[in-house]
Every structure is written in structure tokens, then in C-alpha cells.
Amino acid sequence: MGRRRKSEFEDLIEIAAKLPWWAGIGLGVVSYLGLHTVAGTRGVAPTALQEFGGAVGGQLIRSLAGFGQYILPVAFLTGAIVSAANAWRRQRLHEGVAGSADPRSLEQMTWREFEMLVGEAFRRRGYAVEETGGHGADGGVDLALSKAGQRFLVQCKQWKASKVGVKILRELYGVMAAERAAGGFVVTSGVSTREAEDFAAGQNIDLIDGPRLRAMIAGAGEARLDTGRPTTSSPAARPGSSDATPACPRCGEVMVRRIAKQGRNAGKPFWGCTTFPRCRGTVPIE
Questions:
Q1: Where are the beta strands (DSSP E) in 67-201?
Q2: Which of 119, 155, 163 is nearest to 137 (CA)?
Q3: Closest CA relative to residue 279, chosen from 261, 256, 263, 245
Q4: Does residue 241 register a pLDDT over 80?
Q5: pTM, 2 dp
């Protein structure tokens, strides 16, 4: 059976749900006031035949505004409620993982909860996060990130048993090239294969496995994004570590694993700032 097509009313709710809750409320108020004003205007009776068409058109607009003054605000306010509920849910998921010592906390989530958690983790690191709608547990790009004018794509894999293989990374790399993204992330609750790690190292894709994601979440409250000076107690802030993502020593942002293509260090891996070329911070991998 095919999936039921959404109505325009449901589409409006979905759009509003992707906005901050206060934006949905604002749209609801503005749409009501604007349409209520149009609906309340009085038409002028036509005095000549050539004015008849304009009078009919004006009456049609007022009638549509009369319906719309109730339908649009309800849709926007409903979306605002959904947005607020999702924000609260993301916060609870993030706090739950940050305060849990159970390494299975990620595996006990649904794939949808895992995507929400990953999105919240990047939000707390200063990224603007767009939920692209994914395609469920085995879909393509789930999140699109933007920061400092650059775009990054994220695939979330909440797999309890399977390892993330190189095929997943190749698919992401193809989408990155098509959308001209600056980089990509593959985030999994489990682990990845060695082949996948080797491919990621040379294609500006950062692999974040379960332990690294938990470290990233646990350190989110400690990283000072406003000054770019992370605390050294966070596992994600240890420069030179090959098994934890360091913070950029210059600006404090997340770094990605890259391969030097020229110079005396050609062919060697290193950590590079995700905001390159705005920031050219690097950390050698020991």
C-alpha cells in the first residue's frame, strides 16, 4: 500500500515544526492579524458591468481570508507545539546520555531518537542543524549542518550489531560532491570497519563511533564555544589523540581527520579544523 499523501494543512504543521517554537507562534499571530484584516474589509458594489469581475474577485479573496484566518494560525501554533516538544525531547535525550555510565544507552534508542540526539549534540557545538527527513533506519543523509558559511552532511547509523562499512561512506561522499559540502560525518552507535576508516581519512569525512559520540556529548557542557577555549578534561579536547576528536587549538571547533596532500608531511594523517579556510588550525596525529 502506498504512503498517504499529506494535506496542505499537515505540510504547514511540518514546516512550522522545523522552526523554533517562538517563530511558529509569531507566524500564527501575524497570519491571523493579516488575514483577519483582509476578511473584515467591505466590498464595493459594482456600478458598471466592467466592475463586476473585480467585485467577484475581491469577494473571493475575502472569503478565502475568512477561512485562512483560522486555518493558518492553527497550523502554525500546532507546529510550534511540536517544535517545543521536540526541543524538550532532544534535551532529555542529551542529558540522559551525558549522565549515564551505561555504554548501551545509545543502543537502547530508536533510530529516530538517535538522530535527534546527534542533531542536539551538533547544535550544542554551534552548528545550525536541519533535519532533512532521512529515510528511516537505513536511509541516506539525515542531517545537514551549517557553520561559518560551510555546509556539512551527516548520516546517522543506529545499528546494534552491524559495523559501518565503506559502502556507506562512498554513498555519503557522492552526495557531498553533488551538494558541494565542505565535509561529512557518519555517526554510529556501534563501530566501523578498518576499510571505512581508511576511506574516511582521505575524503574529509569524520567517523564518530559510539564511544566518541558519548565523549562528545559528555564534553558539550565543558567546551566554551563563545571563546573557543575548551577545557582539557573533556575526552574530545585532547590534542594529538588518534581515537578521540580534538577541539581546534585556535578556535575550539570540532576537527576532522584529513590526509596531507603536499609538503614534507604528504600522505600523513592530521586533524584539521572544520571551519577551514576561515581557521587553519591543525593538530598532528601521533
A1: 128-131, 143-147, 150-157, 183-188
A2: 155
A3: 256
A4: no
A5: 0.65
Residues found in the chain:
286
What is the DSSP annotation of 16-61?
Answer: HHTS-HHHHHHHHHHHHHHHHHHHTPPPPPPSSGGGHHHHHHHHHH
CATH annotation of 111-284: 3.40.1350.10
Give the helix/strand (H/E) hosting 116.
Answer: helix 111-123
Q: Copy the grid coordinates of residue 211.
A: 564511544
* Residue range 72-103, pLDDT digits in tens: 999 999 999 999 999 999 999 998 888 887 77
Q: pLDDT per residue over 35-59, tens digit each? A: 999 888 887 676 666 666 777 778 8
Q: What is the pLDDT of residue 202?
A: 75
Q: Can you read off the three cell numbers belonging to residue 203?
A: 575524503
